[in-house]
């Protein structure tokens, strides 16, 4: 059944609006968003759809196409950031973050097509599809940057995951055919054309299917180290420090803080370098940058895992121009840049390497850079 038909079967009447928002792949700039750095993600074609209708009472009823026999019910007056619940918390968090702008009850049915737990930001897709729809229905007319901050607040303060601003920003602001260069300090953007196909290239997304639970402590611990390093250096965020300044201040930091800061500062540098390389169609250079970022995430930031390392190593052994883990880490997906002609053999070799290592079979995706959130036609 279609989303609209299921909506009518579950709730009363037709949805007033259906909106969609995509997941993302981050090309370069990892864990630097909460350090006020620069990142360059792009939106993938997989997206989440949200069908929404306002109701005369103050009840909120939420369901999903993936679990249509479960309806979660609450009230506008009972939305509390309690940290309890499941996927519906992301939606409740967005409604909560809109505050007094939401003046009536809601019926919401979502249809998620961004792979869960794959590090492709299914949570931001969910938040942004709902946030975009509520902004339209209640005519709040927030800018995309304001909506991104609102969705981030839902995740930070309602769900309890201290994420940065990257995923929500790209889910809302992406444009087809482009990667999004985002300054995470002021949310200014530049669309960077990413036309791999004309160069005979493709970016393979390898979902390792390894566990990926950002609400676990590893992400928050990395963020805390970066913030304590910045505080000891007397700066607002690690974005405000160069590598030579970091070296000069080595004695102020613990060994661990130093390693984390070294990754952050270099990865921000790699974002700018990658923009230059893309503008010059230097894809060998792009591949090298990806490989360096992976080594840094593995050795300095220590958020990779055996499955991600194997995915990247096996890709490199099979003619990849370069690859790296993406997202929060500790599982999820890696990306690897290939000549189109090399992809089929590389997929076979990577799957074989996973089998030999006794890992779960990886899933392969590919996606052109796609558009951000919109009303679904
Ligand atoms: C997760 C967070 C983002 C970002 C990435 C790592 O996806 O939601 O804010 O920090 O990890 O770059």
Keywords:
single chain; 377 residues; alpha+beta; 8-stranded mixed sheet; 4-stranded antiparallel sheet; 12 strands; 40% helix; 23% strand; globular; binds alpha-D-galactopyranose
Largest sheet: 8 strands, mixed
Order of helices and strands: HEEEEHEHHHEEEHHHHHEEHEE
How many helices? The count is: 11
Per the principal axes of the C-alpha atoms, what is the gross shape? globular
User: Strand pairing plus helix content: what structural class?
Assistant: alpha+beta
Instruction: Tell me which ligands are bound.
Output: alpha-D-galactopyranose
What do these coordinates show?
The protein has helices at residues 3-10, 88-98, 122-137, 144-159, 166-173, 217-233, 243-248, 255-279, 283-299, 306-317, 343-357; strands at 17-28, 38-55, 59-64, 67-75, 105-112, 178-183, 189-193, 201-207, 322-325, 333-339, 363-366, 374-375. The longest helix has 25 residues, at 255-279. The radius of gyration is 21 Å and the shape is globular. 40% of the residues lie in helices and 23% in strands. The strands form two sheets. Strands 1, 2, 3, 4, 5, 6, 7 and 12 form an eight-stranded mixed beta sheet that branches. It has a four-stranded antiparallel beta sheet with strand order 9-10-8-11. Helix 3 (122-137) packs across helix 5 (166-173) and helix 10 runs antiparallel to helix 11. The protein has eleven helices and twelve strands. The protein has 377 residues and is α+β, with helices and mostly antiparallel strands. The two termini are 17 Å apart. Bound molecules: alpha-D-galactopyranose. Residues 26, 30-31, 33-34, 121, 163-164, 166-167, 327-328 line the site of alpha-D-galactopyranose.
């Amino acid at each position: 059944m279609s989303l609209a038909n299921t909506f009518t079967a579950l709730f009363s009447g037709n949805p007033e609006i259906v909106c969609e928002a995509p997941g993302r792949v981050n090309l370069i700039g990892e864990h630097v968003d909460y350090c006020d750095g620069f990142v360059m993600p792009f939106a993938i074609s997989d997206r989440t759809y949200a069908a929404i209708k306002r109701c005369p009472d103050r009840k909120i009823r939420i369901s999903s196409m993936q679990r249509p026999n479960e309806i979660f019910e609450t009230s506008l007056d009972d939305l509390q950031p309690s940290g309890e619940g499941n996927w519906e918390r992301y939606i409740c968090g967005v409604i909560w973050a809109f505050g007094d702008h939401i003046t009536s009850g809601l019926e919401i049915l979502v249809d998620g097509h961004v792979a869960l737990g794959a590090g492709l930001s299914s949570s931001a897709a969910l938040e942004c599809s709902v946030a975009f729809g509520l902004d339209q229905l209640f005519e709040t007319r927030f800018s995309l940057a304001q909506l991104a901050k609102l969705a981030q607040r839902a995740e930070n303060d309602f769900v309890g995951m201290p994420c940065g601003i990257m995923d929500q920003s790209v889910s809302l602001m992406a444009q087809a055919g482009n990667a999004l260069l985002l300054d995470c300090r002021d949310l200014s953007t530049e669309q960077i054309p990413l036309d791999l196909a004309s160069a005979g290239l493709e970016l393979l997304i390898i979902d390792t299917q390894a566990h990926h639970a950002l609400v676990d402590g590893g992400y928050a611990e990395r963020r805390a180290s970066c913030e304590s390093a910045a505080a000891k250096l007397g700066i607002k965020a690690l974005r405000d420090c160069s590598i030579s300044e970091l070296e000069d201040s080595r004695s102020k930091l613990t060994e661990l803080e130093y390693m984390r800061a070294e990754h952050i500062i270099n990865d921000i540098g790699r974002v700018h370098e990658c923009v230059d390389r893309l503008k010059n169609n230097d894809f060998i250079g792009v591949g090298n940058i990806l490989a360096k970022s992976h080594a840094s995430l593995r050795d300095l930031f220590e958020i990779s895992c055996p499955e991600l390392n194997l995915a990247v190593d096996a890709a490199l052994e099979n003619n990849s121009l370069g690859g790296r883990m993406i997202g929060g880490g500790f599982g999820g997906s890696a990306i690897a840049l290939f000549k189109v002609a090399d992809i089929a053999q590389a997929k076979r070799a990577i799957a074989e390497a996973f089998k030999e290592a006794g890992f779960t079979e990886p899933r392969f995706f590919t996606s052109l850079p796609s558009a951000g959130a919109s009303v679904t036609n």
